[in-house]
Structures are given as C-alpha cells and as structure tokens.
Write a structure and sequence with these properties.
Blueprint (H helix, E strand, L loop, with lengths): L8 E3 L8 H12 L6 E2 L5 E4 L4 H9 L2 H4 L7 E3 H16 L2 E3 L3 E5 L12 E5 H20 L17 H18 L13 E2 L13 E2 L1 H17 L8
Antiparallel strand pairs: 1-5, 2-3, 3-4, 6-7, 8-9
Helix pairs in contact: 1-2
C-alpha cells in the first residue's frame, strides 16, 4: 500500500495485538469520569500521569503512547484518549503510528465535546483548511442581521427568510462544489442550530450545521481520489 505522506503516517511491518478488555476498562474509566484533568484556555481537558497513574498504566498497556509516537506518556489530552480508544487502536493494530502532524479534529468545533462521533483524525493541513473554512463561515453568520431580499423568484413576498436562506446556501454549496468535480447532496436541511457561547454569537443564536456535512463530504471525496482502495469511516 502506497502511503500518502510517509512523514505524517508510516506503515510498520509488524502488527500488534490489543487487549480489547483493557480498552473497555479504559472506556469505563473515561465515561464514568474517574480521572483528574485540567481545562486549558482553549477548552481542552488535559490529563497528567502524576494524577492518573492507574489510567495511564492501562493506556500504556493498550499501546496508546506507541501510537502517538511523539507523546512522552506524561501528559495527554482527553480527546486524544477518546479518539484512540474508539478509533486509533484499530489503526495501530494495522501497523499505523502517528506524529505531531496528525491531529484529532472536533467536528462540531466544540473542544469540550469529546464524544467518539465528534472526533476524527486529520492531517495538519486538513485541520487548517477545515478551521479556516468554519471560522470564515461563522464570522459571516455573526454579522448577518436578517437583511434579505423581500421577494422570491416568483415575485412573491418571502415570509420565512431563514428557510429561504437555508435552501439558497445548500444549493450554492452543492452546485459550486459540483463545478470542481465533487458531486454530493447535503443531507441536512437544517442549516441553523443552537451553539455554545464560546463561538461569540450575540444577536442571533444560530450556526450553520451544514459545515459538518460539507467537511465530511469533501474529506470523503479527497480520500477517495487519493487512495481509492480506502473507505473512509469516522
């Protein structure tokens, strides 16, 4: 199998056996919150070995610090633990290790939401692209004051501006990406949803959740083009 970037991800010849019982023990510790962590200014929960010796011994037993090849085994983020226990250990069993150029991305941009379905491994370049796109979109939504065209294509009065905006944004994204050869349909018709205060929304408490659908679709397209033999799963 040809690697996309050997500097970022390396395939080692040897495959490892992981004790799934210990993996499940770690999951129980995490989801019962039997650990001590510190929340930093970015909202990430950080765990120290000195305060979580039992958990760290179990994580070492399932080779987590071998998978995160640049981690010293003394400090680790909660999202890194969750990502490994649900996804990363499977990659490690197949011979993969990662370095600092592979990140764990929070799909909903909420760094406190460390549920397994909200985490995915991405390259640093992918992470930058996703973050820039999400930030730009949110910045525009923040300043939007509801000033919309008062009539539709039939010349009739528009009563539900956000419903109209939803379909316009959806159609624009689909058709624009189609022009680049990325054919897909955005599954979610609900573009605006409630978001945490950390995004800084003041006047309107809405945020586009189509960002998630677009990112997932683009990631799938990118990976299929680069490595057709792989099926991307989160």
């Amino acid at each position: 199998m040809k690697l996309i970037n050997e500097r970022i991800t390396k395939l080692i010849e040897r495959k490892y056996t992981i004790d799934i019982n210990i993996v499940n023990q770690c999951k129980r510790i995490i989801f019962s919150k039997q650990f001590k962590s510190v929340k930093n200014k970015e909202g990430y929960h950080i765990l120290f070995k000195s305060n979580n010796k039992y958990l760290f011994s179990k994580l070492a037993a399932v080779k987590m610090f071998d998978f995160y090849s640049t981690n010293s085994g003394e400090i680790v983020s909660l999202h890194q633990i969750v990502a490994y226990l649900f996804k990363g250990y499977k990659a490690f069993k197949n011979g993969y290790t990662i370095d600092k150029n592979i990140h764990v991305h929070h799909i909903d941009s909420n760094t406190s939401n460390n549920t397994p379905g909200n985490l995915v491994y991405v390259s640093s370049q992918e992470h930058l692209l996703i973050t820039q796109a999400t930030t730009m979109c949110c910045d525009h939504i923040k300043v939007f004051n509801g000033d919309c065209c008062p009539f539709n294509c039939k010349g009739e009065e528009v009563n539900n501006f956000f419903h109209r905006l939803t379909h316009l944004v959806k159609a624009t994204l689909e058709r624009t990406l189609k022009s680049f050869g990325c054919n897909f349909k955005i599954k979610s018709h609900k573009i605006f949803k409630s978001i945490p205060h950390y995004l800084g929304f003041k006047r309107f408490n809405w945020c586009p959740d189509f960002v998630h659908d677009v990112v997932v679709s683009i990631q799938q397209k990118m990976w299929q083009d680069i490595c057709p033999s792989l099926s991307l799963t989160f």
